[in-house]
Write a structure and sequence with these properties.
There is one protein chain. The protein contains twelve helices and ten strands. By secondary structure, the chain is α/β, with parallel strands linked by helices. The radius of gyration is 25 Å and the shape is elongated. This is DNA-binding LacI/PurR family transcriptional regulator. GO terms for molecular function: DNA-binding transcription factor activity; transcription cis-regulatory region binding. Keywords: DNA-binding, Transcription, Transcription regulation.
Length: 328
């Protein structure tokens, strides 16, 4: 196996001391421009990169950030968010690693925290139980997924409630008064998103003087979706808020199987704006969270937590948006 280049190799190649190499690589002491260029050129030729653990010791902190993901499906929206966070952190010399909490079986976050030096932890939702205790004892800064828009408190639940409220506000603007809500099967697994989204729908209905939504479980099959649609139409619902676009597609399948017209007899709005949303029949209206905006806010909060960023964020404006198409 080829040996990894060391700072001693760079020192020999560039004709300077190891201390000088360290000063250049870590930018810790003034070095002449000519010497700096000689060291950097030698490091590039040799393919030298300082060891992460050693670099952390010298800098007094790690450059590794852990993303704590509770048990939930990693769909397209979450995958995009993780990628955007990784890119944003990378621009500031930080690396992201993801910790997926298994739905079943044991895991030991405390052991991981003891074995890995972390700059910060990003949590989609603040962990409780043993994981919450482990994070508190580790004294690692914890950053929670940020606010939904100006004036909102910073929390994942507030963000998801805003998603649900936006669905209702749009349908109410269209004149709908009696709404259904489509939850996925095994919603307990998705509780980190399903519970606050439904609460957002319910709170918006209360605020607008609408009846409480008629909540029904919708599996991803035509027969199950048809039964839910039959109940909604029987109860005079004229529109349905779906937990996400996948569930909205199931609702549309149930609607079409019954010959119900969309949106004339039943309007449907989803969440996530998945790539297939414009190809639905009819094209699906959906609520989407600006993942890049969320990622920028998270990166800002991480850098602020570790002392790299000023307190004032440059992330402005609403990050929950409505994409209007023909289904409403």
């Amino acid at each position: 196996m080829e040996r990894r280049p060391t700072s001693a190799d760079v020192a020999r190649e560039s004709g300077v001391s190891r201390a000088t190499v360290s000063f250049v690589i870590n930018d810790s002491k003034p070095v002449s421009a000519q010497t700096r260029r000689r060291v950097l050129d030698a490091a590039e030729r040799l393919g030298y990169a300082p060891h992460g653990a050693a670099r952390s010791l010298r800098a007094g902190r790690s450059d590794l950030v852990l993303l704590y993901v509770p048990p939930l499906p990693v769909g397209a929206a979450l995958a995009r968010l993780i990628d955007d966070i990784a890119v944003g952190l990378g621009e500031h010399g930080l690396s992201l690693t993801t910790y997926l909490v298994p739905e079943r079986g044991r895991h030991d976050l405390a052991a991981l925290l003891r074995s890995v030096s972390l700059a910060a932890v990003i949590a989609i939702r603040p962990p409780d139980g043993p994981d919450g205790d482990a994070l508190r004892h580790s004294r690692v800064p914890v950053v929670v997924v940020p606010k939904a828009g100006p004036g909102d408190e910073g929390s994942h639940d507030v963000l998801q409630q805003r998603v649900g409220r936006r669905q209702v506000e749009h349908l109410a603007d269209r004149g709908h008064r009696r709404l259904g809500y489509a939850v996925p099967t095994h919603a307990d697994v998705l509780s980190a998103f399903a519970v606050p989204r439904l609460e957002g729908v319910r709170s918006a209905c209360r605020a607008l003087g609408l009846p409480a939504p008629l909540v029904r479980e919708v599996p991803l099959d035509v027969e199950g979706a048809r039964l839910a649609v039959e109940e909604w139409t029987h109860e005079a619902c004229t529109a349905v808020c779906a937990y996400n676009d996948d569930v909205a597609f199931a609702v549309l399948a149930g609607v079409h199987s019954l010959g119900v017209r969309v949106p004339e007899e039943l309007a449907v709005v989803g969440v996530d704006d998945i790539p297939l949303a414009p190809l639905a029949m009819p094209p699906l209206t959906t609520v989407v969270v600006d993942g890049e905006g969320v990622a920028r806010q998270i990166v800002h909060d991480v850098r602020q937590a570790i002392g790299d960023e000023p307190a004032v964020s440059d992330v402005e404006g609403e990050i929950v948006h409505l994409v209007v198409r023909a289904s409403t």
